């Protein structure tokens, strides 16, 4: 089957399969803080790492459906230049999903999702207690991605990781153990996956 993006319904597909074909995707559970001090927490599924020296992560943030057209997370990052990535584990899947609920800028999603805050070491936004990994990040740059037919666009946020927290309970012989963490991953539609098994492939030499 071949089709041009956006023309999936012409081929009998009820939903756009793009995200269902780019899988699994890690979830960027981002905590930010407004310039007035209100904490925000929200998950984003267009996320990955792009470099490790220095470590750079990137998050694609969709335009908001409200009139101002910008999500609280993006506004906070642009205004404060800081954010925290919290890794979503299987145990916190329900809280993560709860924090995706649309809310006004004056709502603290930590409180709405029943989550406790942990202080960060370098940046102001707090961390999610119980998350096995946290990256404290400083904004590197934002990139406006192409506009859609309505004139709206995603924004790519690139952040430099300036501090890392790893719960030592998830280390085995000094290495991160994914089977202990059980990180949650995004699939397509309303579907998720969890890492329960790891297969090692040794890269061949030249």
UniProtKB/TrEMBL annotation:
<dbReference type="Pfam" id="PF01613">
    <property type="entry name" value="Flavin_Reduct"/>
</dbReference>
<dbReference type="InterPro" id="IPR012349">
    <property type="entry name" value="Split_barrel_FMN-bd"/>
</dbReference>
<dbReference type="GO" id="GO:0010181">
    <property type="term" value="F:FMN binding"/>
</dbReference>
<dbReference type="InterPro" id="IPR002563">
    <property type="entry name" value="Flavin_Rdtase-like_dom"/>
</dbReference>
<feature type="domain" description="Flavin reductase like">
    <location>
        <begin position="20"/>
        <end position="178"/>
    </location>
</feature>
<protein>
    <recommendedName>
        <fullName>Flavin reductase like domain-containing protein</fullName>
    </recommendedName>
</protein>
<dbReference type="GO" id="GO:0016646">
    <property type="term" value="F:oxidoreductase activity, acting on the CH-NH group of donors, NAD or NADP as acceptor"/>
</dbReference>
């Amino acid at each position: 089957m071949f089709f041009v993006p956006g023309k999936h319904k012409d081929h009998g597909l009820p939903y756009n399969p793009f995200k269902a074909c780019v899988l699994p995707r890690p979830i960027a559970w981002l905590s930010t803080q407004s310039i007035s001090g209100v904490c925000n927490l929200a998950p984003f599924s267009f996320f990955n790492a792009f470099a490790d020296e220095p470590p750079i992560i990137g998050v694609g943030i969709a335009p908001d459906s409200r009139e101002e057209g910008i999500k609280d997370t993006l506004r906070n990052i642009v205004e404060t230049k800081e954010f925290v990535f919290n890794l979503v584990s299987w145990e916190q899947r329900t809280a993560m999903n709860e924090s995706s609920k649309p809310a006004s800028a004056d709502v603290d999603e930590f409180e709405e999702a029943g989550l406790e805050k942990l202080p960060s070491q370098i940046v102001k936004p707090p961390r999610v207690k119980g998350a096995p990994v946290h990256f404290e990040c400083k904004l590197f740059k934002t990139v406006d991605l192409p506009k859609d037919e309505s004139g709206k666009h995603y924004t790519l946020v690139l952040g430099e990781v300036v501090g890392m927290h790893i719960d030592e309970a998830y280390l085995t012989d000094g290495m991160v153990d994914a089977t202990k963490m059980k990180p949650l991953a995004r699939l397509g539609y309303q579907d998720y996956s969890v890492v329960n098994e790891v297969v090692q492939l040794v890269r061949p030499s030249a």
